[in-house]
Amino acid sequence: MSDTSSLAESSKDLSENNLVPTLNSLITSLFLPFELESPQDLTPSLLLAILESILESRLPIAPSIRESRTTPAKIEAMKIFLGVLESDVLQMDVGLSDVDPRKLAAGSWDEVVFVGELLCWLGKKRGILVASDEVEEDFSQSMLLRPEPSGFSHITDVPRHPRVASPSTRSSATNTNLSMHSSHTTSNTSVGPPSHYSSTQSFLLPPRSPISSPEPHQPRCIHEVEDPSFLFPSDEEDLNSEHSDNDLSTERPDISHANASFCDCSTTEPLGRGRPIRYTGWINEVDDDAELESFTSSNDADHDHTPSKNHRTRGLYGGNGHSTPRLPSTTSRRTITKHTSPTEHTLALMNERARLLSELAKLKQAKRS
Length: 369
Prior knowledge:
By secondary structure, the chain is an all-alpha fold. The chain is 41% helix and 0% strand. The protein has ten helices and no strands.
């Protein structure tokens, strides 16, 4: 029992002297307006903010849980936090399954210290933290006590990271070096990536250069937006905005994955390759004469193969069909390539719109029958 007490005391002294300055350096590098005095200042919301800032993406947590300040909501958020950190980010067993999310949400010492060490190590591997002699510490040799197994933990045969050489801990040591040494030291944290990636590819991104001046964070990928559904209207909304009675759906090309090569974030599934989007250069000028000529030729072809205008009007609006046509009848048909007045051009466009609405009504009638 005395050995356990001495280990706990040495763990507390070690954390207060080294862990808190390292966490404050990490928070400062992420431009978060906080300063810790103790590891127990790591509240659930601050833990989420640190991990999301490191990953530069939001965790899949419902807005109701984020906004709530109740204990069950904090526990649920910590469950997702621990699962994403171990399964998606680290992709190796370092003992997070033994961390009780209830104790972590309540700020229990052992839980917050262990999670704080992992966040500092992750920040170092991502190049956010710069190694220094004062805060340099090898967390693979940490003497922190392992948290007691909780109701949320499960027993597996996978070896766990040895946090203390306790007689009750029978799991073998993993070959994981969670060190905070300088970046030129060879890292042993490369883990097996998903099956669709190369077996030699590391999960963690290469370290980025230290940040010298604060810059506003700008989302680089579509998945960094909390709700990307508002960026592109759906097919139904797009149709209803133009024709309130149009029930037909049109297929629009998938542009959410177009030109996905600009995103350097790690993903679990390969992105689909759509039509590339060009962001530079100039678009060609519109040829008004060619557009009008194309419209006129299609309009003449429709007049040759469709009934009279009165028939189309009667089919669309009902009645006896004796209404005055929109365009005055002429004895000789003329090819309208350039309209002589804006009014004549407007009437031609309205005539084309009436024809399209008539065809749409016929399609709807055929679908109902």
